[in-house]
């Protein structure tokens, strides 16, 4: 990924307000460079590993959605905040084991890592029991790296058609993680492939509302916006450096 210094550790509401303003300004500038309005890009805060006490400060500063990749951690937060912040939204952004689909169906509003019909069918059954719907993003491996989850770009149309009868799933778009490199042209290529894949799907009759590109993290979200991102997943830019070295969202 491209290298950008993490924001200063946010420990007060004022810190979070300042960091959010900085990220939103970068979003606006990148959107402008791509000929779009800042309102065309949604900031999805990545809140994994962040304790509830700090999250409360971030919510008071304006965070409205929590992006999580640890399902049980996210479930615990949703239960803790249920009465305090009833309008808070939850987005699961990491790979999901089928045996945890029941939890996602219970609390999540968005799932950014759908990569198989089997998982979609499991979610459908669980959502029926919960009498809920779930917005889903199909994860595409645009870098070709074995370490990345997701299906190949050429397989998306088939999966999208297969999940069409699953009425509890609301397909919203595609998601990817860029190539793990510092080479900007390679990173851009990952994002551009996702954009062109979505364009081709829309030209061939994708469902109404299937128009979102979830791509870009703290180190590369500006490049992602320039390549067409409509959702950027930012954690360190808002919360500061995490407590473990491998995090980059």
Tell me what you see in this structure:
By secondary structure, the chain is α/β, with parallel strands linked by helices. It has one domain: Alanine racemase (TIM Barrel, Alpha-Beta Barrel). Helices cover 41% and strands 15% of the residues. The chain is built from 9 helices and 8 strands. The chain has helices at 13-33, 52-61, 71-81, 101-107, 117-130, 156-163, 184-203, 221-226, 236-239, and strands spanning 42-45, 65-68, 89-92, 110-114, 134-139, 169-175, 212-214, 231-234. The protein has a 6-stranded parallel beta sheet. Helix 4 links the parallel strand 3 (89-92) and strand 4 (110-114). Helix 3 (71-81) runs parallel beside helix 4 (101-107). The longest helix is centred in the first third of the chain and has 21 residues, at 13-33. The protein is globular and about 45 Å long. The relative contact order is 0.18.
Determine the structural class based on helices, strands and strand pairing: alpha/beta
How many domains make up the coordinates? 1
Q: Which range best describes the helical content: under 10%, 10-25%, 25-40%, 40-55%, 55-70% or over 70%?
A: 40-55%
As residue ranges, the low-confidence spans are 244-248
* DSSP summary, beta strand count: 8
Q: What value does the average pLDDT take?
A: 94
The CATH level-2 architecture is identified as Alpha-Beta Barrel
Q: What's the gyration radius in Å?
A: 17 Å
The N- and C-terminal alpha carbons lie at a distance of 10 Å
Beta-strand content? 5-15%
- The main sheet orders its strands as 2-3-4-5-6-7
What do we call the CATH topology?
Answer: TIM Barrel
| Level-1 CATH class name | Alpha Beta
């Amino acid at each position: 990924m491209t290298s950008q210094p993490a924001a200063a550790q946010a420990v007060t509401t004022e810190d979070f307000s300042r960091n959010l303003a900085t990220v939103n300004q970068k979003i606006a500038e990148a959107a402008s460079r791509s000929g779009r309005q800042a309102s065309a890009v949604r900031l999805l805060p990545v809140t994994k590993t962040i304790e509830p006490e700090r999250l409360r400060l971030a919510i008071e500063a304006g965070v409205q959605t929590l992006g999580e990749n640890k399902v049980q951690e996210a479930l615990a937060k949703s239960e803790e905040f249920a009465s305090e912040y009833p309008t808070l939204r939850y987005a699961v952004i990491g790979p999901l084991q089928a045996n945890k689909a029941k939890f996602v169906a219970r609390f999540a509003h968005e799932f950014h890592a759908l990569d198989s019909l089997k998982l979609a069918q499991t979610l459908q059954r669980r959502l029926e029991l919960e009498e809920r719907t779930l917005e889903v993003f199909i994860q595409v491996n645009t870098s070709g790296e074995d370490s990345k989850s997701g299906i190949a770009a050429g397989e998306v149309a088939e999966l999208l058609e297969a999940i069409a009868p699953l009425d509890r799933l609301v397909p919203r778009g595609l998601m990817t993680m860029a190539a793990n490199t510092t080479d900007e042209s390679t990173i851009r290529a990952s994002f551009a492939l996702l954009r062109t894949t979505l364009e081709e799907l829309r030209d061939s009759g994708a469902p109404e509302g299937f128009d979102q590109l979830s791509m870009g993290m703290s180190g590369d979200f500006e490049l992602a916006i320039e390549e067409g991102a409509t959702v950027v997943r930012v954690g360190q830019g808002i919360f500061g450096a995490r407590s473990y070295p491998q995090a980059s969202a």
